[in-house]
TrEMBL record, chains A, B:
Chain coiled-coil ranges: 232-295
Chain ranges passing through the membrane: 6-27, 97-116, 146-166, 353-376, 396-422, 449-471, 548-580, 601-622, 628-646
Compartment(s) where it occurs, according to its Swiss-Prot or TrEMBL record: Membrane
Protein name: CSC1-like protein HYP1
Originating organism: Saponaria officinalis (Common soapwort)
Region annotated Disordered, chain positions: 691-714
Entry keyword Transmembrane: yes
Keywords on record: Calcium, Coiled coil, Ion channel, Ion transport, Membrane, Transmembrane, Transmembrane helix, Transport
Pfam families in the cross-refs: PHM7_cyt, RSN1_7TM, RSN1_TM
Domain CSC1/OSCA1-like 7TM region, first and last residues per copy: 356-621
Amino acid sequence: MILSALLTSVGINLGLCFLFFTLYSILRKQPSNLRVYAPRLVAERKLKQKTEFNLERLLPSAGWVKRAWELSEEDLLENSGLDGVVFMRIFTFSLKIFSVAAVIGIMILLPVNFMGSQLEIDFSDLPNKSLDSFSISNVNNGSKRLWIHFCATYAFTVAVCCLLYYEYKYLSLKRIDSYYASRPQPHQFTILVRGIPVSAEHSWDESVDNFFREYHPSTYISHTIIRRTSKLQQLTDDAAKIYRTLARMKSQEHTSQRSRYYGFLGVFGNKAQQLSKLERRLEVVEDNMRTEQSLLVGKEVPAAFVYFKSRYGAAIALHIQQGINPTEWVTEQAPEPDDVYWPFFSTSYLKRWICKLGVFVASAVLTVLFFLPVLVVQSLTHLEQLETYFPFLRSILKLAFVSQVITGYLPSLILQFFLYFIPPIMKILSSIQGYISMSEIQKSACSKMLWFTMWNVFFANVLSGSALYGFDLILEPKKVPMILAQGVPAQATFFITYVVTTGWTSLSSELFQLISLICTILRRIFSAEENDDLAVPSIPYESEIPRILFFGLLGITYFFLSPLILPFILVYFCIGYLIFQNQLLNVYAPRYDSGGKYWTIVHNSTIFSLVLMHLIAIGIFALKDLPLASTLIVPLPALTLLFNEYCRKRFLPIFSCYATECLVKKDREEQNDPRMAEFFDKLVDAYRDPALKPTLNGRDENTHSSPLLRSSEI
Amino acid sequence: MILSALLTSVGINLGLCFLFFTLYSILRKQPSNLRVYAPRLVAERKLKQKTEFNLERLLPSAGWVKRAWELSEEDLLENSGLDGVVFMRIFTFSLKIFSVAAVIGIMILLPVNFMGSQLEIDFSDLPNKSLDSFSISNVNNGSKRLWIHFCATYAFTVAVCCLLYYEYKYLSLKRIDSYYASRPQPHQFTILVRGIPVSAEHSWDESVDNFFREYHPSTYISHTIIRRTSKLQQLTDDAAKIYRTLARMKSQEHTSQRSRYYGFLGVFGNKAQQLSKLERRLEVVEDNMRTEQSLLVGKEVPAAFVYFKSRYGAAIALHIQQGINPTEWVTEQAPEPDDVYWPFFSTSYLKRWICKLGVFVASAVLTVLFFLPVLVVQSLTHLEQLETYFPFLRSILKLAFVSQVITGYLPSLILQFFLYFIPPIMKILSSIQGYISMSEIQKSACSKMLWFTMWNVFFANVLSGSALYGFDLILEPKKVPMILAQGVPAQATFFITYVVTTGWTSLSSELFQLISLICTILRRIFSAEENDDLAVPSIPYESEIPRILFFGLLGITYFFLSPLILPFILVYFCIGYLIFQNQLLNVYAPRYDSGGKYWTIVHNSTIFSLVLMHLIAIGIFALKDLPLASTLIVPLPALTLLFNEYCRKRFLPIFSCYATECLVKKDREEQNDPRMAEFFDKLVDAYRDPALKPTLNGRDENTHSSPLLRSSEI
């Protein structure tokens, strides 16, 4: 790729971004779009809905940028929880490391690369210069100047490790602070116990009670046994749906001004007839629900939520093996009540273990087989291949503009399209892995997505060029550095355009919320009702974090190979910072909080990127006839991994549980708080299965407490 | 090797064994040898020392075999602790699996192998038949009969896994039973805390007190801070040594009948002069000791033993992270008081971590570099090579007997000699790894020795034949099955003779205790005094267990390759069972007990052997033109590893700590025991550093409580 093609691509994408921003700043001011661009504020009733029209509403403005910029970390913590803070720290952390990288890369490495003559490129014609002349490939083989790259690698690694350390430390303190500041929450006093042993005399319910009364007499309060409720849940959903239709039909009888909409739907039959039919159906469903509820006692599963009088009491039961048989009385930290994922409680220890294995295999297969569409994309970037396969396209491809668009824009768009379907699949896989909380499912899906993205976008592109595919690499670790050193620099151009196209576009589409916008418009046109249940979305960490981390990986690995990528990456993180600050403020509201556990993924990913960079460096220096530098790089990955090991010991435990010091202090603070009695009264009901919550005495109550509405109200 | 050479070797070794046994049965009856062959019984005063001479003393007898055979597991548990039971279970477990293997191998596989014609050996001359005709190499390539081997592999794996499961289950129950049966012991109520944070106001001593009074008010009793005592220990040792010399010299002044021995030592100077000189030296040392003791307060290290009122209280402090910073207030289970390894307490968290790494590298280097002598040994087994290097030996080597002895006996003897020095080195390495107990050092040395033995005896022999050395294998995992399939069967003969020579000989030399016997005889001749401090040895698990497990590895891997090895292995385990039962009864006394933790090593080693066998099978079936069988074996190692993973989850936690159920039950049992008050009084002094124990008021007391004497008295 030549410089002018890159500049074309940058131009197109900057233009698109600007267009999106302008449109956004206008659209967000329209009252009808408030539910798309500020659902959170609407839900929190923080906005006055101005309906009068003025000209200002049609003019683009940059006020949102200012507000996003001014959002402080304290506000963020209050608004979006620790997970939100961690999410934004990814951007600030990346900005820090890539500022360091850009200073070294652009000031030192880029001129050194450019002054090389390995590729023998004509100096006079800058616009038509290949981008390779800015990369390490242009430095002469065996040149002493390569030692500059060598030093840069060491310096950059040290800088990143220091920043990683301070960030981990900062966030672990933040986590403890926010624990100290938190009000008493049910999940702090609750554990989940699974694998309750089968007993001839007692039911599981009695077993749990006996066991904890026996071994935790001073701290045990009560427990809730878990029951198999999937059928009841289904019935409840049905009933809620019928009831809502009924309610809507009845309200339409009273309000005449909306009947023209209903007339549109009225073609399906006589209204009164329909009403009585629906009411009969509702009665049948409710009868079934009653039968199902009476059967529930027999549907106990060997799992229960156990409540304790203190956080420390719960921690003791959590951390010490309870039963002699380690597969019985298995304890786990309870998730927040809203975070519980109910369907998977009924499975046994062995079954969950097999599910886990199955999911592992399935996600590995998905990751590897996804390869094929990527290969197609890859082939598009080589115009000559395209011309041979489709000879009739030759005349079109000859046009300079078309060829530039194809090489610069189309491939990553197709890739993007395929990638769009992966996060939901990964989330489904994670959910059958046996996790008990939605947040853990999301976190696991996030890791899976990260591996997926790295493999399918990075490695697939790098390896397909050198005709050596995945599995061979695993079986021949000796060749890894060489293969990477051949493959990675060759794809520099592809990844620079990837950052410019996919990276920038994904950010502006995040801001613009195109799909949500179209849905709202369609609903406004076709739907009769003013939809009362506003669903405030929560940020989809499982797709956003891997994407952001992938750009981090690109930046780190290409830092010394092709420093030209760095400014584009910096732009990505700058725009990303602003946009996501804005989105967290206006759009997303957290449903549950993992307490910043996502940072462990960020940390590991950064370490992985560093080690990958070192492996490439080992290969590159060997290829460039500088075997001494190649050997001297070897300690660097080892030291980086040791640093990681130290961080694991120093910080990871803080992210997995709280220490005695914290727990006891927190318990003592609240010892004499009169409000605690009320809290404990509520605690016992905190973990009732949503399917068991509706009482069927009055229908209004039923609808309001129906799980369907509840979940969308949150 | 031909059959007759093997029979020669078997004959020589059976003869040697019989000779050793006969000598043993005579020598053990001599009163002067009681301290060699029954030190344990002597120490426990269970033997009447008969001094009158009778003829029976000179006749060999088999009474010891009967007594060893009759020793029940209950007696063993009482005599030698759970570790002794686990040790003997290795033999019974091995006998079980190799009985199964022998039935399949000798009845089915051996005839199948013998009927093959791949090696084209003449059928008529059985004595000169190569041993290879009994191995899988003789089965024709692509023959359908190989499916018999395939089925045998599956059947054997299933059998071994079942036995492993029941053994693990049995031993974990045994461990819990023996915990229930145990009397209160200090280490059950004590934890070790390290990484006490530095505080400006408080000393470490005060910090510990404050911390545990704050966070464990109801269970904390007291603590003992650890001090840097290596210098004091040195001085105490010196003082004890001088004092003993003094005491001996003084006693010789009174007892005239021994003065002729003293005359022998008396050449060094005037007696009175010497006495006064020694006394002055003792005073100086004691002065230094006093100074050192007064300085001790300033030599605190950030570590302490903390005592609790209940086992459960100690477990709570042990299992829950104490400080917010996970590298501070690190808790560990305290070892038994006699099991504490004092020197390594003063090191910091980071230093210990670096030591661990260093030791890991050092033991890896030792394991790999030991290769060289093994290669020399290997070259000896090829007579032709020996003849080319040393042409003058040619005439001797031509003699049939010499050549048979060299191929059959010498190589493994040389190897054995080298191996003799490794366990002490491994133990030293383990001791600088930062373990706090002797038993853990021993266990870690045991693992190291196991890897060492496997690598240097098994892999070095297997790989040197195929000219491909260690590191290549690690870097090219794809080739592993092929290389093993080429190398392993080729060494079948070597390993059969290895079992017959090294295996059997090591057992009889264990029984005969040659070195100990020679030492006793020499001491009786040259030493004046009747040595009062009888040192009862404890069984050197770190060298015995790896050796035994290695024969297990050989049996498992060669089971389907060369079933001829199985009878010899069975003989090894039979003799071993009898001899070690006898030794545990008469010779060894346990110093400390790890509670059967060695079984985890046995389990892992057996799983490793199985997977190794599967890898070889994959390679062999591919080599033998039966690719389908090769593919169908692949699930077997995966399933075996899954089985191992299940066992890790099901049983391993039982071996690392005790559950709430156990702890609370045990605590309640003793709640009202009046003897517990006395126990807690003693508990506070249980973990005093031995260097701090002597009081210097009276010298007699000093000598008696000196650590040197104490440790040898145990």
